[in-house]
Design goal:
mainly alpha, about 270 residues, 12 helices, Tetracycline Repressor, domain 2
Length: about 270
């Protein structure tokens, strides 16, 4: 995939926030860290380019020169913006999670202030999923890098990214806590629900085709309906029936496994 052009809003947020990160703070007083719009714009372009390279070939095989060539700068020019390949990976991931956290903080605060239907957890769940898909469907490379390469970081870089990642998880978890507390007669662990949701919306990078699949808003609406109501609507009686069927199916599966094991020992 090729890197997409960042919006002015993304450029402004990135320049402001990345100068607050540990790697940037260490050199904030240096002339090469000038706070200019041109610098911010080029930095975001480099991060998008690096994400495309890391997603394509993997972080370990990727060389700084590959990123520089793809970004249209010299290796020395690239080092004007970052100190190392590790810092590139760190800035990509921090930029993504911080941007998502800040965006939902703003949206959620406005929805709660508006009150009514907008403040309901169902509406905020839709907004959360929509924001996630809206970002990553336009930047699949950063989704791949954030899900596949997180453990490549260590030290302060890893701690900073994990802190933003935990904040993002907490935003979703709080919504599911509300949803699980109002579901009559159905016990659901909000942590399990949150993890399942992230598993689904992060997997989109493996199957989404912009030419044939739905928009972020349409997909978010379908996923919210799926999480709230399942594939087919059920009432309390059919839920109990489903539980019985599930238990019987599990027992049958266990019996089949035991039988196969027994035959293997003969």
């Amino acid at each position: 995939m090729t890197a997409t052009n960042p919006t002015p809003q993304q450029i402004g947020m990135t320049g402001e926030k990345l100068r607050e990160t540990p790697g940037a703070k260490a050199a904030e007083s240096a002339p090469r860290r000038q706070k200019t719009a041109k610098y911010d714009r080029k930095l975001v372009e480099i991060l998008r380019t690096a994400a495309a390279v890391f997603a394509e070939v993997g972080f370990d095989p990727a060389a700084i020169r590959m990123v520089a060539d793809r970004a249209g700068v010299s290796v020395a020019g690239l080092y004007y913006y970052v100190h190392s390949k590790d810092e590139l990976l760190y800035l990509i991931q921090y930029h993504v999670f911080d941007g998502l956290v800040r965006r939902f903080e703003t949206d959620s605060a406005q929805m709660l202030a508006d009150g009514g239907e907008a403040a309901r957890p169902e509406a905020r769940l839709f907004r959360f999923i929509h924001n996630h898909l809206d970002h990553f469907l336009e930047d699949m490379d950063s989704l791949t890098v954030c899900t596949r390469e997180l453990r490549r970081l260590d030290g302060d870089y890893l701690q900073q990214v994990e802190a933003r990642q935990r904040a993002y998880f907490s935003q979703a978890f709080e919504i599911f806590q509300e949803l699980c507390s109002i579901q009559d007669g159905i016990q659901m662990d909000p942590r399990t629900a949150t993890l399942a949701m992230f598993g689904a919306i992060n997997w989109v990078s493996t199957w989404y085709n912009p030419a044939s699949d739905k928009s972020a808003s349409e997909l978010a609406g379908e996923l919210v309906k799926l999480y709230l109501h399942g594939v087919s609507p059920t009432d309390g009686q059919s839920v109990e029936t489903f539980k019985g069927v599930s238990n019987r199916s599990l027992e049958s599966s266990n019996e089949a496994v035991s039988t196969r094991k027994g035959r293997g020992r003969q």
